[in-house]
Amino acid sequence: MNFCPQCASPIAELLIDSEIRKGCPNTQCGFVLWNNPVPVVAMIVEVEGGVVMAHNVNWPKSFYSIITGFLEAGEDPEECARRETMEELNLHALETKLIGAYPFAQQNQVIIAYHVRAAGEIKLNHELDDYKIVPPAEIKPWPMGTGLALTDWLKQQGLSPKS
């Protein structure tokens, strides 16, 4: 962002609340670009046989992850987990349980993670092109983002996460 969306002044770096932030130098305007993190909901979708690990069409071929989606305006995070499970996998969420919230600074996101027990026939939407059903004991969490939620969930299941 180069110009203020409220008064069109050039954006500058300003000292606000002891932090350098981007904002409008026009004191009559006062616009600040807070750059708050985006809420993302992640689902560890468990079906008969294990956890659904999916491949997004934009990811490297070997990378599979749990299901994620953006929280819509006014939407409850748990309802988002149910909606995204249906939209991305065509599965009915039978039970949802909050795992936790996790910072993902690299993507400027806060991840709200749920364990979802689901049923139905998997049909991938246009964002996904493949999936695997992985037994929980075989899951290897990664050290950031949704991997932190997987680690916590595996521990809740009495499993030692593989490294």
From TrEMBL:
Gene Ontology BP annotations: NAD+ catabolic process; NADP+ catabolic process
Catalytic activity: a 5'-end NAD(+)-phospho-ribonucleoside in mRNA + H2O = a 5'-end phospho-adenosine-phospho-ribonucleoside in mRNA + beta-nicotinamide D-ribonucleotide + 2 H(+)
Residue span(s) of domain Nudix hydrolase: 36-156
A cellular component term, taken from the record's GO annotations: cytosol
Cofactor(s) of this protein: Zn(2+); Mg(2+)
Taxonomy, superkingdom: Bacteria
Keywords: Hydrolase, Magnesium, Metal-binding
PROSITE patterns in the cross-refs: NUDIX, NUDIX_BOX
Molecular function via GO: metal ion binding; NADH pyrophosphatase activity
Keyword Transmembrane helix: no
Pfam families in alphabetical order: NUDIX (PF00293)
Record-stated family: Belongs to the Nudix hydrolase family. NudC subfamily.
Protein name, entry field: NADH pyrophosphatase NudC (Nudix superfamily)
Lineage: Bacteria, Pseudomonadati, Pseudomonadota, Gammaproteobacteria, Cellvibrionales
